[in-house]
Amino acid sequence: MIIQFEGVIGDFMKKSPSEEGTQLKLRHGAADGLRELQKNFQIALYTFLGEKTIQLAVEYLLREEDIVFDGIYRRLPAFKSTDEYANYN
């Protein structure tokens, strides 16, 4: 099962308007849903985030929520300038 990170599992948001940096915000029930899915499916993560940013999210989910992804795929930079929304090739 391929699941897009942004908006489905969570997002990185600014801590506050006055602070620098971002923090991971998981959607309500996302961790519970992923734990349930990993019982019966292989889960691949698809994201538009940069490598370091998605690494932080995956490490958090593994360490804190005990969620293991079978694959992680990032959108190719070449697609950023096109009208194509997502290419799962």
Would you summarize the structure shown here?
The protein is 26% helix and 24% strand.
Structure description:
The protein has helices at about 30-35, 50-65; strands at about 1-5, 10-15, 20-25, 45, 70-75. It is α/β, with parallel strands linked by helices and about 90 residues long. The chain has one domain (about 1-15, about 20-80). A three-stranded parallel β-sheet has the order 1-4-5, with no helix packed on it. The longest helix is centred in the middle third of the chain and has 15 residues, at about 50-65.
How is the topology of this model organized?
Blueprint: E1 2-4, E2 10-14, E3 22-26, H1 30-37, E4 44-47, H2 51-65, E5 71-74
Parallel strand pairs: 1-4, 4-5
Antiparallel strand pairs: 2-3
Total tally of structural domains: 1
Tell me the fraction of residues in β-strands, as a range.
15-25%
* Uncertain residue ranges: none
The Rg value, from CA coordinates, equals 14 Å
What letter string, H or E per element, gives the SSE order?
EEEHEHE
End-to-end C-alpha gap: 14 Å
Helix percent band: 25-40%
Number of helices: 2
Number of strands: 5
Class from helix and strand fractions: alpha/beta
Q: Given the C-alpha coordinates, what overall shape results?
A: globular
Summed over residues and divided by their number, the pLDDT gives a mean of 84
Main sheet overview: 3 strands, parallel
